[in-house]
């Protein structure tokens, strides 16, 4: 999985009030319990261990979304692996679909440096870009 997006680039989407999560873009947070410590606004939480079973469900629900971004804590293992699995399922679906399938144009990316990089970038200067932030639990991680 080689397509990465920076926190700054993704933040432009999240800040854009004309763009809606789940319609114009989708952020898939594949962390487990640490999702509850804080997350990107509009992110959908599907733990990485569930992605192999739920990729088809994601595709069914969000095939119309042009941009899908996966991330975990650091986006070194779980995020990229989840994006790869999702992309493989998309490719299998495209083999049996028609040429006008919106999935053919869907961009699948991974957030560089994951949620840790996102929090490092925005926690102080734009805390509204982190929902449900729990400082005590964050410091305990």
From TrEMBL:
Q: Which domain of life, per UniProt?
A: Eukaryota
Q: Which Gene3D superfamilies match?
A: Rhodanese-like domain (3.40.250.10)
| Enzyme Commission (EC) number | 3.1.3.48
The family database entries (InterPro entries) matched by this protein are listed as: Rhodanese-like_dom, Rhodanese-like_dom_sf, Thiosulphate_STrfase_CS
State the GO CC annotations. Answer: cytoplasm; nucleus
- A Pfam family matched by this chain, by name? Rhodanese
List the keywords (alphabetical): Hydrolase
| A single MF term (Gene Ontology) | protein tyrosine phosphatase activity
Per UniProt, residues of the Rhodanese domain are 21-127
**Protein name in UniProt:** Cdc25 phosphatase Ibp1
Species the sequence originates in = Coemansia guatemalensis
């Amino acid at each position: 999985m080689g397509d990465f997006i920076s926190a700054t680039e993704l933040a432009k989407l999240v800040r854009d009030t004309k763009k809606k999560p789940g319609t114009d873009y989708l952020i898939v947070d594949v962390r487990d319990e640490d999702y509850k410590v804080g997350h990107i606004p509009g992110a959908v939480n599907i733990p990485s261990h569930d992605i192999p079973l739920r990729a088809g469900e994601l595709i069914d629900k969000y095939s119309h979304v042009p941009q899908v971004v996966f991330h975990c804590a650091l986006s070194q293992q779980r995020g990229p692996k989840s994006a790869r699995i999702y992309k493989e399922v998309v490719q299998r679906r495209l083999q049996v679909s028609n040429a006008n399938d919106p999935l053919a144009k869907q961009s699948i990316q991974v957030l560089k440096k994951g949620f840790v990089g996102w929090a490092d970038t925005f926690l102080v200067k734009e805390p509204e870009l982190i929902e449900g932030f729990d400082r005590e639990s964050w410091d305990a991680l």
